[in-house]
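Hi Q.,

Before the meeting this afternoon, I wanted you to have the flavin-adenine dinucleotide prediction in hand. No need to reply - just skim if you have a minute. The sequence and ligand are here:
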Amino acid sequence: MSLEMHPTRWGDPARAAALPDTARGLVELVFPVTDRRVADGPVLLPAHDLSDLVLRDLAAVVGPEHVLTDDESRRLRTRGKSTPDLLRARAGDLSDAPDAVVRPSNHDEVQALLEVAVRHRVAVVPFGGGTSVVGGLVARRDGYAGVVSLDLVRMKGLLAVDPVSMTATLEPGLRGPEAEALLAEHGLTLGHFPQSFEFASIGGFAATRSSGQSSAGYGRFDALVDGLVVATPAGPIELGHAPASAAGPDLRQVFLGSEGAYGVITAVTVRVRARPEQKVYDGWRWPSFDAGADAMRTLAQAQLLPTVLRLSDENETALNLVDPDSIGGSSSGGCLMIAGFEGTPAAVSARRAAVSAVLEDLGAETSGEEPGRKWVAGRFDAPYLRDSMLDAGVLVETLETATYWSRLRRTYDAVSSALTETLGEPAMVLCHVSHVYETGASLYFTVAAPEGDDALGRWLGAKRAAMDAIVATGATITHHHAVGTDHQPWLEDEIGAVGVEVLRAVKRAVDPSGVMNPGVLVP
Ligand SMILES: Cc1cc2nc3c(=O)[nH]c(=O)nc-3n(C[C@H](O)[C@H](O)[C@H](O)COP(=O)(O)OP(=O)(O)OC[C@H]3O[C@@H](n4cnc5c(N)ncnc54)[C@H](O)[C@@H]3O)c2cc1C
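Predicted structure with the ligand bound:
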């Protein structure tokens, strides 16, 4: 599988496909289908802006073969993979392309590149997998001599394994499957499987505080991090020297979620687990979303969570269940839950029995293992389907938040209404819960609507309304996608004016000349 993604689509270029006929038939029942598939011909980028002197200084650090200014390299590192990013790329808008791509091979080279950037006032955008969905790869250009994409693709080592303490130190450029393959050689797993797993990187997971599909069992990424090494323009910083510490505030938390605005994460020490010997995923059916969510809360508060726990609302359940070959038949309604168990056979069997007993007691009906098998088989496919839907003139995008259990229904209703009202008929809004805590849960919304004349404008309007609804109901502006540039207008609502000033103060300390990802995260 290629790790260079398609420039205007998600993922492996070889897997780009038109909407299958059966699915197309289904879509046509709801939306007008208009073919818009873009031809990916050669694209002309704006000429790069960097002087020969800057290019020479960059090349002196990494070697001239690792300073790339050709159109294709720059195009492949332009923006991320949100639907607005894809719509702009499909429209041929490459105005945010970096001037050059530089590829360091180790921490010292990263540190030396930052010195060059400061000397010449060049903006630096750390680039991991390029899967950002919040505009995290779009640096401000004004006032800079140019923009460089600092691609961590050559930093893919497993630097250390401590099988006694169960930690591993990974370089930031490792993509999800590469990190898992290296850990597997030691019988270990990280257990971090976001939907972007196949392309996103270790450094990106840390820089965005990512959360994966098995977060109920393994924890979100920031909870797995024990130590970090960061190259900042002010110098290197190494954090995390013991499993717990009272040595002042935990500075690791300052760099987790820092989205390249404070420096480049060059090594991440993570907690690892033994690879599971057995995996089982059960399907359960609930009469309503509220009943399923209450059951999730019961499990979380009883500290009886499976490894994977997800609940689709009525709309998402109905859509997942529709068999395009038998359109017209009715789905049996309700809400589908997947409860997955991973570990030794004894641990799986004990936890599965305990969880199943609670779910049955609370009124769930078992659907057997088939829904779980289907979910596992398709768990990384949705982004490819988004491209096929865009090809068919259907706008598809997602957004996420998290809130306390006592407010979950309020936020769910407010965001659903904001999206439905701004997109208008026949928009579809689907939702699921896939990350749960003792005190609350995330809500992940997917929308589908006819593209119309101005798909980008329509989505940005809907997203604004949804973000306002999130803030109005006291939920977080992002549970795991980060802030980037897209969520920045709502950041002060969440952390307050003093909070914003603290972020700026840290930036002044570690990046006094402001070359690190300017405009991203820190307002
Ligand atoms: C289809 C799809 C599905 C997704 N599913 C999930 C999901 O299930 N869970 C989830 O959490 N997220 C998900 N995401 C969002 C995205 O994959 C995550 O934010 C991911 O952590 C980004 O990793 P990356 O390596 O691609 O980072 P990039 O996109 O390359 O960068 C993201 C940000 O981090 C900065 N950065 C990257 N590497 C470093 C580094 N080494 N040091 C400092 N800064 C750095 C960049 O400058 C940028 O601001 C999804 C995205 C897509 C497109």
